[in-house]
Write a structure and sequence with these properties.
This protein is about 20% helix and about 40% strand. It is of the alpha+beta class. It folds into two domains: about 30-120, no CATH class; about 125-204.
């Protein structure tokens, strides 16, 4: 199972200059957000309120949080197209949604219009599950997986293919796009071209 081609680059340095002595750097959220084609880094407190942190403290907190994620095989980076990229065991999903790292729990959180949503399932495990369950046969490596927010859920959107036994005579492989919940790993939707749906019906 090969990973889609994504070229990550290091995330930019923090821009805040001042610090507040009462801020606990181990109990804040680092927030990465795409604005006007650039990824910027901000800080929020435990209650989601923006806080001002010195650049040196911000970078120290970032290095610590990202380093602990990397020990678990998880990396957060940015692509050449200035999109955020979440990678795990060779599988990368990109997004334009704001992503936060909780410096206390080291969890990855997506900031949505309905508030923060913690990413429970990482992209590699989700992809392995839907292949093992036969929901898709393989991955379309020309389609880069995405992280989207739809229907009140953060989802991974994968491009894949499904192989059917056509009329009991031969196999045919058709494209499919699958949306899978980043919280439960369950399939939220599958978008299939008309040909795919027709082949599926004939093959049942």
């Amino acid at each position: 199972m090969s990973a889609p081609t994504v070229t990550p680059t290091p995330l930019p340095a923090a821009k805040q200059e001042k610090t507040s002595p009462e801020i606990d750097l181990d109990k804040m959220k680092l927030k990465y957000q795409v604005r006007e084609g650039q990824v910027i880094l901000m800080a929020e407190d435990e209650n989601g309120r923006p806080i001002t942190v010195a650049e040196s403290d911000m970078r120290r907190a970032e290095i610590s949080a990202l380093g602990k994620l990397e020990k678990k095989g998880v990396t957060l980076s940015m692509t050449n197209e200035n999109r955020l990229a979440l990678s795990n065991n060779g599988i990368t999903a990109v997004t334009e949604l704001p992503i936060m790292i909780d410096t206390e729990s080291r969890s990855v959180v997506v900031d949505t219009v309905d508030g923060p949503k913690t990413v429970i399932m990482l992209p590699d495990k989700v992809l392995k599950n839907i292949i093992d369950l036969g929901i898709i046969t393989g991955v379309d490596t020309s389609v880069i997986p995405r992280i989207e927010y739809t229907g009140g859920e953060v989802v991974y959107e994968f491009g894949g293919n499904k192989t059917y036994n056509f009329l009991g005579l031969y196999e045919i492989t058709v494209p499919v796009v699958i949306s899978v919940s980043a919280e439960t790993g369950e399939v939220v939707s599958r978008n299939q071209p008309l040909l795919t749906r027709a082949v599926r019906l004939i093959s049942i």
